[in-house]
Amino acid sequence: MRYVIVGLHAAGRSACAWLRRLRPDASIVGVDPEAMPPYARPLISYVLSGELEPGQLNVEGPDFWDRLGVRVVSERATALDPDKKILTLASGRQEPYDCLLVATGSSPRPAGVQGSAAKEIHYFRTRGHVERILAACRPGGSAAVLGGGLVGFKLTMGLLARGMRVHLLVTSPQPLALNVDERVGAWAAEQLAALPNLALQTCVTAQSMEPEPSGGYRLTLDTGESLTVDLVAAGKGVIPASGWLDGSGLACADGLAVDQRLLTAAPEVYAAGDTAICRDVALGAPRINAIWPLAVEQGRFAAWNMAGQDCPYPGGLAMNSIPLFGRHVVSVGAVNPRLTRGCVSEVAEDRQGRYLKLVFDGSSGRIVGALGLDAAPRLGELTWAVRRGLTRDDIPTHWRRAPLSAAPLAARTEWLAKAAGL
Amino acid sequence: MVVKSVIIRPELCVGCMQCMIRCAEAHSESGVLALAVSEAVLAKPRIHIGVGPELRPFPNKCRHCEPAPCQEACMPGAIRSDIAEGLKIVDMARCIGCGMCGMVCPYFAIRYYPAAQVAGHGAVAIKCDGCHERVARGQVPACVEACVTGALAFEDVNRHMNAGVNRLANAALGVTA
Are residues B121 and B132 in the same domain? Predict the structure, then answer.
């Protein structure tokens, strides 16, 4: 059996490790131009802020792939022929396969800024991106960050830590609008507004970017204002890196649709991670949740299925853990106001300002989301609860009354039985 | 093969919290309770007594799952399974305190505190390490040593499972031993 894994980051690396456990003798080929040495992409924000050295991005040694028995081809995949079962690489070389996993992840979403200097906008996804931003940083300089989501927020904090003055330009009425509710969003905005060297502007979009004769760039906003800055960086979300599959009959612009076994429309072609459109258990609809833990998990399920087991993937959900101004925000499932219309929420709070919000579907009572401020460890249970489809009645009163000291929800044997389908 | 692990029988727990104290003591710098309470960074327990069903005490600790969601979510690869067999152990030097592991642990078994072992690092993930160093020295985990009611026991998992299956079968068939 010849397995080919296209993309060797979170999903691909997980799939390779599990395939090797399940199929010790199989031939596994990994295709990725950026595979060596394996590193964790989400850690680049810690490198930007100076909390980690660039070398600490590496999560495995240089001999990792050899030890795993994976032959790595450091090239970009350019085409797939599912009928002939052949993968074509940038050099023209062809790799035949019996079973293939698409784990090419995603690319930064273009910032949508016009102008002759727009191509010099920095994005923030790979080791190369952070190296380029660090090279362009200078203490006392000014930067504009486009996007108030998680990536924009991390860019902002990193650039501030590097001594730059930052203009954070957010299209939504508040930062982190997709990840938190109005209350935590307002708290985050308050904290951001109090930071020295930071100017936060909401409900604003950058329209064009031109070079300044004296150096730097002039950024024109939709409000008519303009800013002169030394560096522009954008965190506007990601788009699936599935463009190379145009012509294979598989791709759609929004990613690869997969079935419960993470199998695409082509036989023996699986997809996992940021390219795979899976069922979102909170929303009950297909959706890509481009986050690290789901990519690793999907890599594992894909490997199990590629190895011949029948392992339906239970579905993913949005979840984020955000260290924020010395506190810890965790959000799971549907919490932002746009997705929670018609939902009922319940809030627990204590004198230390710890905040836990549970969001229930208005009609079925099923828990669809949770948000915590300094209640981080508790959110894992609620992730579990959302995935298991627990309802408001399943969460005992004593848990709701004292969520910071109650035993875990999973301690209830009847729920364990429910989870096991007994 | 004998695989020993801490087995919890919540029905025997009286909520005395001695396990928490002895766990923190065992993970302190000095390893001695009288000195541990005045250490600069207080050691924290890795086992917790929570309020369980019917408001009864429920000892709660890491189950060292396989595959472990916390290990899959850990971006810097700080949760390791190559330190001691069958255990998922946090390598504090690699932990960045991002909270991803707590976000996916269904058992509320991971918490975040500063640790003396990585002073100046900020909060890191603190969870049961199976007292692997004590076990390697021939001791039992500190929480088990502290438990006088038998709610915590260090037993062969397979024997425990067999005993559980027998109890269940006897109950189902109405057999009284």
Answer: no
A52 close contact with B: CB closer than 8 A:
yes
Burial of residue A34 (number of CB atoms within 10 Å: 0-12, 13-18, 19+)? middle
**B13 touching chain A per CB within 8 A:** no
| B97 and B148 housed in the same domain | no
Helix (H, G, I), strand (E, B) or coil at B139: coil
B13 with B26, same domain: the answer is: yes
Picking from A293, A320, A410, the nearest residue to B106 by CB comes out as: A410
Tokens of A195: 């930071």
Could you give the CA distance from residue B18 to residue B148 in angstroms, rounded to a whole number? Answer: 9
CA distance A196 to A256: 44
Q: pLDDT digit of tens for each residue in chain A (422 aa)? A: 999 999 999 999 999 999 999 999 999 999 999 867 889 999 999 999 999 999 899 988 889 999 999 999 999 999 999 999 999 999 999 999 999 999 999 999 999 999 999 999 999 999 999 999 999 999 999 999 999 999 999 999 999 999 999 999 999 998 888 888 888 888 998 999 899 999 999 999 999 999 999 889 999 999 999 999 999 999 999 999 999 998 888 867 789 999 999 999 999 999 999 999 999 999 889 999 999 999 999 999 999 999 999 999 999 999 998 888 888 888 999 888 777 888 999 888 878 888 889 999 999 999 999 998 887 667 888 888 898 888 988 888 777 777 767 777 766 554 444 444 43
Please check whether residue A328 touches B, CB under 8 A.
Answer: yes
Assembly ipTM: 0.86
* Domain extent at residue B68: 63-127
* Residue B78 domain-assigned (yes or no): yes
Judge whether A417 is closer than 8 Å to chain B, CB to CB: no
Interface A–B counts its CB contacts (< 8 A) at: 115
Q: Taking CB atoms and an 8 Å limit, are A377 and B112 in contact across chains?
A: yes
Q: Is residue B177 one of the residues assigned to a domain?
A: no
State the total domains in chain B.
2
> What is the least distance, in Å, from the CA of A379 to any CA of chain B?
5
- Label residue A214 exposed, middle or buried (CB < 10 Å: 0-12, 13-18, 19+): exposed
Query: Is B101 contained in some domain?
Result: yes
Whether residues B35 and B69 share a domain: the answer is no
d(C-alpha A395, C-alpha A382), whole Å: 10
B18-57 residues touching A, CB cutoff 8 A: 50-53, 55
Give yes or no: residues B57 and B74 share one domain: no
CA neighbor of B13 nearest in space, from B109, B149, B142, B108 = B149
Q: Are B11 and B95 within one domain? A: no
Interface membership of B15 toward A (CB under 8 Å): no
- The enclosing domain of B29 has a CATH number of 3.30.70.20
Q: Which residues, including other chains, have CB under 8 Å from residue A352's CB and lie 6 or more apart?
A: A374
Asked if residue B175 belongs to a domain, the reply is no
Cβ <8 Å between B96 and A51: yes
Rounded Cα distance, A5 and A7, in Å = 6
Does one domain contain both B45 and B94?
no
Domains annotated on chain A, with CATH: 2-107+238-306 (3.50.50.60), 118-234 (3.50.50.60), 319-419 (3.30.390.30)
Question: Are B45 and B97 part of one and the same domain?
Answer: no
The answer to whether residues A76 and A89 touch, using CB atoms and an 8 Å cutoff, is yes
